[in-house]
Amino acid sequence: MSLPDNLNTNDASPAWMNKADNAWQLTAATLVGMQSVPGLVILYGSIVKKKWAVNSAFMALYAFACVLVCWVGWGYRMSFGEKGIHFLGMPNVALDQKFLLAQTFNGYKFPNATMVYFQFVFAAITLILIAGALLGRMNFHAWMLFVPLWLTFSYTITAYSIWSPNGWLSQKGIIDYSGGYVIHLSSGVAGFTAAYWVGPRATKDRERFPPNNILLMLAGAGLLWMGWTGFNGGDPYSVSTDASLAVLNTHVCTATSLLTWLLLDILFFGKPSVIGATQGMITGLVCITPAAGVVQGWAAILMGIMSGSIPWYTMMVLHKKMWLLKQVDDTMAVFHTHAVAGSLGGILTGFFAEPKLNRLFYLVPNWEHYVGLAYGLQMGQPGKGFKQMGIQIMGILYVIVINVIMTSLICLLVRVIVPLRLPEDELQTGDDAIHGEEAYALWGDGEKFESSKYTSVHGIDDFPSVVPKAGGELQMA
């Protein structure tokens, strides 16, 4: 394979590359990756019942690895490559060094290798968020098939349509700063749809599903929150003032949303719920994502108030009244935290997006696109504002339709090969029945792990056991 024509073999930093941009992009990508591994691995493994800790964490870990292989194999080019059909790019590998070392699209000042890595971590977290709706009952083998199929036939469609320069919604002027549509609305709708097809958890699990470790859950939530610095701060694709604004708006909105949710819990239920505060944190992060760098700070606070109250209402009140919502067992309430909060963020973006900030982000010389309704009214050009709102709502409907249809077709295909739901006996047992391993050894020096084929590999059998001496003291056996 030959090197790119514009790359000097004696210079690893070609003239078109900005070292600061490249370094920040790689850092931002790694922060997003840490939201998944270990962030959501820890969060999922600790927020579920003890018997589901290993399975839940492993669903996230598997998805992260599987998505990367599929992404470099064909997914990236389908999402950002040459135009194939109206809403999809041409599938192709992203492993050729001539491609990877060349400058990426739109004149951004770093190589394709960096862009492939950056976009991979977004694709991976989308699948992991879907898993949140399916915890505690999905057949792991079915999940192994679902991940590559959904990435290929659903994620790539929305990513190409909204984020690719050739995408039809991108060209219409939709504002999705960092994935409110492509990641959060998609994962919320797909997770809810897949949960319908997989079926509910065991009755006992639906009635009582306590977290096995709330402190560890908070550690995972903290990684998720702080990792969002890269999630939203990396999307200008440069070390810019817009990136700085996006980071600050992200954290301001999130904190406001968390406090709003917390106050509502205290007012209506009398107790400040840690799990509730975590949900408020997540809805704030999701809501600000499509708007992060294109709204002012006061708008971020208003968005935080709404993201801490509207999803709270749909989850705590409306969910118990609507027949459809009651029929689907969404373990982590992904529908409310991502589909509702993502749609809310998309609509509020259409209202609060400031034209000047949009020009900084999209690098457009005119005001034809990207005028929030509030500013359209202020400028005496309401038509442009209503047009932007219409595009934002069109994008929401498009993402919903694509994900309901494609997720349903994928689930129907997978269940022809393997059952989507675990059998009843494994639902009762959990991790030990599925993986032959359990998360916690609470007694007996972990003898439950003796059945694992990895026990002797890790030298567990070589450690001396501890037995009590007469008088109650401990000694080595």
From TrEMBL:
Q: Which Gene3D superfamilies match?
A: Ammonium transporter AmtB like domains
Sorted alphabetically, which PROSITE patterns does this protein's record hold?
A: AMMONIUM_TRANSP
What is any Pfam family matched here?
A: Ammonium_transp
This protein's UniProt keywords: Ammonia transport, Membrane, Transmembrane, Transmembrane helix, Transport
Record carries keyword Phosphoprotein: no
Any one GO molecular function term: ammonium channel activity
Specify the domain of life of the species encoding this protein: Eukaryota
Localisation per UniProt entry: Cell membrane
InterPro entries, per database record: Ammonium/urea_transptr, Ammonium_transpt, Ammonium_transpt_CS, NH4_transpt_AmtB-like_dom, RhesusRHD
**Transmembrane feature ranges:** 23-45, 52-74, 116-135, 142-161, 181-199, 211-228, 248-270, 282-313, 333-353, 396-418
The entry's cellular-component GO terms read: plasma membrane
Mostly located where?
membrane
What is the topology of this protein in the membrane according to its UniProt annotation? Multi-pass membrane protein
List, for all copies, the residue spans of the domain called Ammonium transporter AmtB-like. 23-440
Record NCBIfam families = amt (TIGR00836)
> What does the similarity note say?
Belongs to the ammonia transporter channel (TC 1.A.11.2) family.
> This protein is called what?
Ammonium transporter
Where does this protein come from, organism-wise?
Rhodamnia argentea
Q: What is the lineage of its organism?
A: Eukaryota, Viridiplantae, Streptophyta, Embryophyta, Tracheophyta
